[in-house]
Design goal:
Recoverin, domain 1; mainly alpha; 5 helices; 2 strands; binds calcium ion
Length: about 80
């Protein structure tokens, strides 16, 4: 492998991991958004103990639903075991 092809591979790898990170909040909302209103209500969060535990922290305006904006600001990530 030449130096330039290694550099290109590194850039592509960084780009790929960035794109998957950027989609995480949306994927998380989709996964738990049972009524598909684009937000996670406390009832929907019950399905995921980690999300439920962090609900109060993520829901910064305290209206009982987590929006995509609140989720991305919180930096919340599911920890998989
Ligand atoms: Ca919902
Ligand atoms: Ca909220």
């Amino acid at each position: 492998m030449t130096t330039s092809s290694i550099a290109i591979t590194a850039i592509l790898t960084a780009f790929t991991s960035f794109s998957s990170l950027a989609g995480d909040d949306e994927a998380l909302i989709d996964k738990f958004d049972l009524d598909q209103d684009g937000q996670i209500s406390i009832k929907e969060a019950v399905a995921e103990p980690q999300l439920l535990a962090a609900f109060g922290k993520i829901d910064t305006d305290g209206n009982g639903v987590i929006t995509k904006q609140e989720l991305s600001k919180s930096g919340f990530r599911l920890i998989r075991f």
